[in-house]
Amino acid sequence: MQPELAITIEVAPAFHDLDPMNIVWHGHYVKYLELARCALLQKYDYDYPAMHASGYFWPIVDLRLKYVRPAAYAQKLRVSARIVEWENRLRIDYEIHDAGSGERLTRAHTIQVAVDAVSREMQYLCPPVLWQRLGVQP
Fold it and tell me: Average pLDDT, whole number, for the chain?
């Protein structure tokens, strides 16, 4: 049985995250996803510095967002990130919910691939160090 590879963080949009309509500008959702992704990777001691130290870069090659409802200034948000693929690529699924009501505001996913830090060649299988850190089998 594979472990639950997930984390939930809370964020509250700042005034400078708003657009002229007084809702969170769509581009800032990517920042909230990044905060959750970093917290998730840190949980498994394989954040970006550890990835680089292990000999790999992990660029995001695909990002998809589905905006369901807008977020507002100082609205408490729960941002959940869950690793759902780790064999050939690292796919993380996200959901952003209103912390008070539980209403879903956004769904998203990112896909990252391992790139050898020296040769700059993309790896077609995730390196075993990822599986070891996550405690999973390919």
Answer: 96
